[in-house]
Structures are given as structure tokens and as C-alpha cells.
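Issue 218. Parser rejects a valid record. Input:
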Amino acid sequence: MSDHKIPSDCYWTAHQQDGQVYDLSHLHPFDLTVTQSASGDKPARAYEFIVLFSIHCFTRDKYDNEIVPEEYFYSDNRHTRVFCSIRHELSFKLPDIVKNAEKKKVLNTGKGNFLIIDIIDENGNITEYEMYFSVSRSGKQKGKLNFYVESAYPRTTGEREKHLTPIRLHILAFKTLNNQPIKTNAHKKSHR
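Output the parser choked on:
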């Protein structure tokens, strides 16, 4: 459903910065099965996903006029961005957020991707941790879906769109597999 090209290799190598090694193996691809419960005369149905994480889950854009030491940059085959220790630390939550996505409120952004908000408490402060993702049919494995985490970050400025359309993950999976349109009430809004 998304226009984003999913990188073929999302196995991240550890990042070294200021004498510290930051492990990224928790963001390697994994398989996920989401089961839609039986309802009435409809049997239970399982949806298989390949979960992939983008470089945006642990890096950020360079700020205007920011001087960044070379070792702070992280690159994949498409982007070079600034490694972000805050995003990296929060990224350890991502595999569990994805594994529990069927139980969470999934919001349609209206731009071909979706949003799950997890509330985190850092020293008594409530913060919204936003995870943006897309779902598409896997071109490599028939019948499987890609669950591509495009970006994840704590909301630190501004307000998020209030009127995003909720959708259950199993409905999103069904509609994606069957090339059906996904309704939205969302207004166009960019994300980082």
C-alpha cells in the first residue's frame, strides 16, 4: 500500500561511537503470524508477515548548521543519517510493539502508512512513542506480507493529527492481500 521501496537487506551492523558499541541485532527481520479469531461462520485466519525495520528507527536528520563528527553518521544503501542514542534506546521496544500490534490501536495516516502510539514513562514524564509502518504484499514470498517499520521516535514537538482512522491489523492484512482500498478520514500530514 505504501510507495516506499523496502530495502532488500535490513540486517543492521552495530554502530560504534565515542568508544561505545550500539547493538542493532534486535532490529533484524523476523517472521510474525497474526491470527484473526473465528467469528460466526467465519473460521480463524492467520496472516504471515515479514517484519523489517528502517534506518529511521535509530537515526535522525542532521539539524541545520549542526557540526557532526564523522563517526556519528550511520549509512545504509540509501541514506546517511545521524545515529541517535535516544531513538536507539527506544528501538528496543519496537519488536514487542510489532508483536502486539493486533492488540493495539492502529491508525491510518491517510498517506499509505499507519501509526501505533506507545506511551512511555521516563522518570515520571509521559511521552508518546510513535511508530510509523507500511504493509505490502511480499514480492519474494507468495501469501506473505511485509510489515515495514518506516520510522519510530518520541513526539517532542507539535501535536499529532487528531482525526486518524483506526483499523485492526488483521483487516489491514486482509485488504492488502486482496488489493482492497483502505478508508481514511486523515488529513495529509508529514512525519519525520
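Fixed in the parser; the record now loads. The radius of gyration is 17 Å.
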